[in-house]
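User: C-alpha cells for this complex, please. No commentary.
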Amino acid sequence: MSLIMRATRRQMLHGLGASGLALAAGLRPRPARAGELVVGFIYVGPKDDYGYNQAHAEAAAILKTMPGVKILEEEKVPETDDVEKTMESMIELDGASLLFPTSFGYFDPYMLRMAKKYKDVQFRHCGGLWSKDKHPMNAGSYFGYIGMGQYLNGIVAGHTTKTKKLGFIAAKPIPQVLINVNSFALGARSVDPSITTQVIFTGDWSMPVKEAEATNGLADQGIDVVTCHVDGPKVVVETAEHRGMYTCGYHANQAKLAPKGYLTGAEWNWITVYKMFVEDVQSGRPVPNFVRGGLAEGFVKMSPYGPAVSETARSHADAVKAEIMKGGYSVFKGPLKDNKGNQVIAAGAAYPETAIQIESMNYLVDGVAGSLS
Amino acid sequence: MTAISASAGAASITVPSGLAPDRTYPARRALEAVGIPLAALVIAFVAFSIFLLALGKSPSDFALLVWKGAFGSWFSVQNTLQRAAPLLLTALCVALPAQLGLVIIGGEGAVVLGGLAATVVALPLSGAPPVLVQIAMAIAGAAMGAVWIGIAGALRALRGVNETISSLLLAYIGLALFNHLVEGPLRDPASLNKPSTWGIGEANMMAALPGTELHPGLLVGAIACVLCWVLISRTSVGFAARVTGGNLRAAQLQGLKVARLVIAACALGGAFAGLAGMIEVAAVHGRANASLAAGYGYTGVLIAFLARHNPIAIMPMAVLLGGIGAAGGLLQRRMGLPDATVLLLEGFIFVAILASETLYGRILWFQPRERRA
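Assistant:
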C-alpha cells in the first residue's frame, strides 16, 4: 500500500508542476498578425460528414489558400448558448472579425445576441433569416436555392429507374426539406408521370441508424433510386450502394462512397459566397447583409454524372440545366395538386426559386407517397 | 442528527484504551476523498498525454490550452461556469436516487419536458409581472420533471421494474412527445425551418447574475447541491435513504417506508432536471425547441458518477467538465485536434475515477490509526 502512496505523491507533484507551468504560459496573449483577416467557421456536425458540414468546410479549405486570411474552424458545436461562447472565444482569444455560424439554429437568439455585443465583428449566417427592420446591421444571412439541383436529380433518377419507384429520406417536414422532396418528385415526373416517390422522415438531422433502416426499407419495397436531405448522406448512399440501388447525392459529392450507383448530386458551392464576403471585408467595401443565389449564381452545383447515367438522361438534364441558368425557371407551376388531391397552385401561376410563396411550403405534391404528420 | 450521533458513537467505541485519540483522522479522511480523485485525474492526464505523444502532439501545449480556454481569463472562467450550470441540476437527478442504490439515467426526458411545461405555462401569463411568470415556470418545470422521473421510481417501487431501463426509455418517450408537441400543436407557425413554440417574451427572460454574463441557473444549481447535501447527510430522511441504499432488507426490517422513499428521491431528482430545462428556456433560448435536447441530462449521469453521488463534489466535477468543454474549441482551432479528442479525454477521466473507487479504504495512511496497527 505504501508503494501506491509514493507513486501517487510523485504524480501529484508532477501534476502540480504542470499546472504551474500552464498558469505562467496561459496568460501569454496570441497577437494577431497585422493586416490579417481572421475568419471563423462554426459547424454543427463533424466537418468530414460527406454532407452539410463538409460542404462548408471544403469552401473554408479553399479560403485558407487566399493571402492575408486566417481560418478558424470548430466542429460539433450544439445549437445552444455553447455556440455563443464559441463565437465569443473566436473573437476574444483569436481575434476573429468575420464569423460564419453555418447551422440554421445558430441564428436566433444566439448569433443575434453576439452581433449586438460585438458591433465591430461581421456575422453572416447560413439560412436566410436576416431582415433589415429587426436585426443588427453587422449581422446578415446567405443561402442557396438548391431545389433546382434536386429537380435535376429527379430528372436523372426518372430516366434511370426501372421500377418507376423512387425514394427520398428526409429529416424533418420543414419548408426547406419539402421544397427538395417536391422538386425531386416533379423532376422525375417530368420524365414519366407514372413515377412515384416514397418519402420517409427520420425526425432529426443526424440519425444514422434510422437512415440505414429507411434505406433498407425502401430497397425492400422495390425502390431503385434514392436521394436524401439529412445532414450527412453517407449512411444512405453507402447502404443504397450495398443494396444495389442508384443514388442522387445531396450537400456534397458522395461519388466516392458509391462508385457504381452514384448518378449525380445537388451540391453547395459555398466558396462563391465566402470569397465574396472575405474580399468585401478585405477591401473595406460594405458587406452585404442578405445574399442568395442558385445554380446560375454559382451558389449550387451538380456532381459530375456517374457511369450509370444514360446518354438520354444526360442530354435531358443538361438541356433543363441550360434553361435554369438563363434565370426565372419555375419548377412549381399551376395547376399543381398535393398528394391529397387539393389544388395548391392555381393554373397559370408559376413560382421561380426566388418566389416567397414556396418558402412556407407545407405540402407534398401529387406523386409523393408519405405524410407530413 | 441520527447520522452524526451514530458515527460518533461508533468512533468512541473503537478507540482502544491506552492509545491517544487519533486527532488527525478526520483531516486524513477528508484528504482521502480529495486526494484519490485528484490522483485519478493526474493518471488520466498522463495516459492521455501518451495518446497525444503518439499523435505527435505536445501534451504541454494541450495542458496550456485547456488552462487558457477553461480558466485563463475572466471570459474563459465564465465560459466554463456557463457550461457547468445546467449540469449541476441534471447531476442531482442521478445523485439523489443513487443514495437509495438506484441508477437513474433518463434525466434528459425530464429536462426537455420540464422546459416545455415551463414554456406552456408562461404563454398564457404574458403581461403578468415577470417574477410571477418565472416562479410559475419554475414550478411547472420542476413538477413536470418530478412526474416524469417519479414514474420510473413508482415503477421500481410498486412493480419492480428496473429503473435504469425504464428511465432511459421514458427519456426517449419524453423526447418523442416533446418533438411531436413542438412540431405540431404547440408550434409557432412563424418558426418555419426550426420548429419552436411561441417565445415567452423578452421581458420574462431571467437576467444575468450581477457583474457577469452568467445566468442565474449557476446560483440555483449551487444552492440545490448544498441543500441536497444537507438533506442527505444531515436529516433523518437522508439517513433513511442511505440505509435503504446500503441494505434494502435491513431498511425494510427497520420499518422504513422504502417505496415512498424511492418515489420521493426519484421525483425530487426529476424536479431538479425539470428545473434545469425551465432555466434553459427562461435564461437562454426564450422558447422550447430542439436546442433543449442538448444532452445535459446524459452529461449529468457522468458527473454524478464522477462525484460519487456526493452533491458537494458535483460542483467541482461540473466545473471540470464545463472547463474541458470550454477549452474544446481552442483545442480544435490551435492544435488541429478533432472534437472527438475532448470526448476521449472525458473517457480517460471517467475510467480513471471509476477505477480509483477500489482504492477507498485500502491506503492505510488515510485509515484510523487502530486499523493500521
